[in-house]
Fold each of these.
Amino acid sequence: MKQNISPLFKAAFLLILTFFPTFLALAQVPQVPSELRFADLTIKINEQARREIQSDVDALYRNPTYFKVKAERVNLYLPIVERELRNAGVPTDFKYLVIQESSLIADAVSTSNAVGFWQFKQGTAEEVALRVDGQIDERKNIVASSQGAARYLKKNNAPFDNWMCALVAYQMGLGGARSYFGTTYNGKKTVEVDRNFHWYFKKFLAHKIAFEAPTVMLASNNGILEEVQVQGPTSLKALAPRLGVTEDHLKEYNKWTAKGNIPDDRPYSVLYIRENTPRPRQAVAQSQPTNLPSIPVSTAEVKKSDFPKITGDAQKATQPNQIKVNNIDGIKAASTTTLDNFSEKVGIKEAKLRRLNDLDKTDKIEAGQYYYTKPKKTKADAETHIVLPGETLWSISQMYGIKLSALKSKNRINDERELKAGMILNLRDFRPRGEAIPTVPATEYRKIIANQGNNSVPSNSNSQQQNRFENNPPVSSPSSSQPNKKVTHTVQAGENLFRIGQKYGVTVEEIKKWNKLPDNNIKVGQKLIIDKP
């Protein structure tokens, strides 16, 4: 039996269909909590302030199309922003500030003539060592401007020891923030936000909540943002063929050079999109994926005996100021002892020694182990590391002289329980968002373990092997009884020596040696000889 549908019902149904995407988007709007963490602070928000901040969060989600466009820029630029903040020792939560300031538009200009990603006026930009003139405007360079912003934020934080005050000082200046806050929040780790709290911080909280929510799905891009350091004099036009992109493409992502010329006063960061490497749709705050892809790896890549690299007077390694560990001042522990006793011998305060070596208060100093007396680096000399049984994030960080926080952030891994034998960890470059940590194929990993067993050395059975790198036996390369096969590789757009090395199971240094390359620079179409294992 045919039923009659009223015109009013039809109209209502069409209205729902028309606005359903908006309804769906609004249904996923994150809600402002009554308490959250920002940097090292606990932020408590009362109900009136919570409703005000929620209104700003809702507004950010109101237009799904605009939000998607902004999300694409966030997905593109935020990894670089995170890296620069982290390298400068500034909490990465400040990455949401650049979204608030410019929506990540390189040439954004405010009504007060503040320019670029982080909205610097010319005087402030020059104060934080950014070049601004008729030829170069580093306020429009995401790398340089993020470095400048980090310097400015650290300077603002110094008199307050409170990152909330430092953030407000970003908007009103250090003098204005001092007058506004006085000493009320100096050193405080809890901040209570009410309706009368500074508007700029509440606006920031809205951006943090909006863009860190797990429900925020970012649009996938056709590629990822690559950075190359270029020393002039040269031009974007000359660089374009080498990078496999057009001159117009480079101009789009490098608006900091007014006429496309790169001067020779210092290296500059040139950015471009490496195509055909799409990222999956993902949340800004995303847990480590559980599916771990395997990639071809040669056991020749794992040369554990090379690290840590010890230089200096090895005979006096247990005395201060005698050796360097991975080119960082260090010392070898002569006996197992407490951190307090060891720090007294080294002549460094216990808290500082603990911080330099990423140690907990309860950790003991292990005999025969190397410890650092100067800060570790944010990058290691090696490109990658294959995790072996018994290793921990701490032991790997000590092995290469890389800060534990840097190792974790480069691989987007936070929990020791996420570490699995066979994982290939990055030691220099940040792993792209949403990219799982690759693992060594089982057949290759068995070879590595076999080599580990064949080259093992005696170790103290009482030592905590799983926590100390020196007790991990070295792994040597497999037998070279079979001749290697030489192949010719033609460089494709977006490739670099590290990626090519991963493809063939060889190292960057080997490729450079075989092809007599003076540096890591290669160009599209270039022929490379690979002595394939």
Amino acid sequence: MNTSNSTLPFFIFATLWILTTQNVSGQRRTFISQIDKPNAWVDSLMTKMTIKEKIGQVFMIRVYTDRDSVYQDSVTKIITDENIGGIVYFHGSPTKQALLTNQLQRASKTPLLVAMDGEWGLGMRLDSVNPYPFQLTLGAIQDNRLIYAMGKAVAVDFLRTGMQMNFAPDIDINNNPNNPVINYRSFGDNRRNVTLKGIAYMKGMQDAGLLTTIKHFPGHGDTDVDSHLNLPSLNFDKARLDSLEEFPFKKAIKAGAGGVLIAHLNVPALDTTTNLPSTLSRPIITSLLKEQLGFKGLIVSDAMNMKGVVKFFPDGEADLKAFIAGNDILELSENSNRAANMILAAIQQGKIPQTELDSKVRKILMAKYFTGLDHLTAVQIANLTADLNNSYNQRLKQILSDKSLTVLKGKAVLKSLNPDLKTLIIHIGTKAATVFDHDLRACFHNCSSIYLDNTSTETEIDMLLKNLRNFRQVIAGIYDPRARPKSTLELNLSLYNLISKLAYGNKTIINVFANPYTLATFKDIEKSKALLACYQMSNETQHAAARVLEGKLKASGRLPIKINSYFPYGSGQ
């Protein structure tokens, strides 16, 4: 079969060119450039607020849109009673979220800063919206202009739904394959690749007018503990932290990052206080981030209800310490009213200068002004879901998946595939019909398909192996249907043995629609006739893989992590 480079319609090329060339030379004003400038709107609000109302601006509370009116009324009451500064949305639907945003903004005395943790866009949290690829998938792409274009598109979606801030990108260097919390959320384990792609994504969002937070400072990539459940430790010396973990943050700050999100990490080399999370460390936030690295933007804590921060500092103590440490915004406090009262008491007792409070609040209000909240308008509900799933977004998501696909072995083999030969298509890890199978069956005219998962019997597997001799070509897909793919698959030993036999038989083209770290768990996978890393089980990656096998797409991705000696960083044919 002839393999040709994928071609994009002219309008896609033209649009990408516009997106990736405008505003990249600094013509557009940035949030960082506006922070210290005089502002009458900000000054007017500062003058009118009481100390308690100012403290309320520091907090961002959790909000869901899939709950009843009683819940929504309770959220409204907290916002109005405490003059809460912002909200963070989680799962729900675009329309319900927009309606609730309009309701809460109308009720709030001070315009709310509305945010979401959308590392792969709105689809990470909302239904009815197709997500962008995971950051680890994006790490394989060789053209960072595409990452910038994605950043702009994500920002447009956020702004369309009435949000002003995205807690993204994740610029942690994931150099621990067993990291339970970062992993596929990172661009990979190479500091340069992570940095360049993180900055491209950040700039794309910021150039479109969205506030961002690079995370998780000072670096969450080499941890084996989930900070949602406990306090991880970074037990490295300053030289290692400076040259690796902090490297992307230093570069992104110089590139104009508007926000930094602080991780819950114990880092003895930076602060020797026992069991102290970095979110509560003044040496890490004020001395290192603000003074040494010169960061002037918004400093946001990671969620203040996570065990990594409240385990050793319960009952509001964590909130108070986080405020003193230098955070401007406290995200998702266990009890914002209790925390606000503790901060107020500390100010009244002279433990915290009021100038520190005023400095934080002014920065927050400047962020609101920068994003247009001084002239707040309601989110338009009509055509909202359709706008978020427009044809450009869908095409861009497919292009990103196309460009990520990585041929680790057998480039010449792929060119020799014949659609007329008797072909067996094996699907391992799912019994649900796949896009990959649908696409292949439209091209390979003489084919059969079989689906196997943990419910499959040894008899089925043995019969499959016996029947392999009857097929001239064998194509296998390995799938992980989990929304949060891990470094190991939930396959039983029989299926792992089957994968090994398929690979060792040197007859099968294997496509891994799963976290690429899983490649290390397959015995003899390197012996397969051909091997494609597809990174995740999305419809887009399945479309892309089928087109590679059909000779309609040339895979150009490169492995963004080291798997083992067979597949080092940068592998790809």
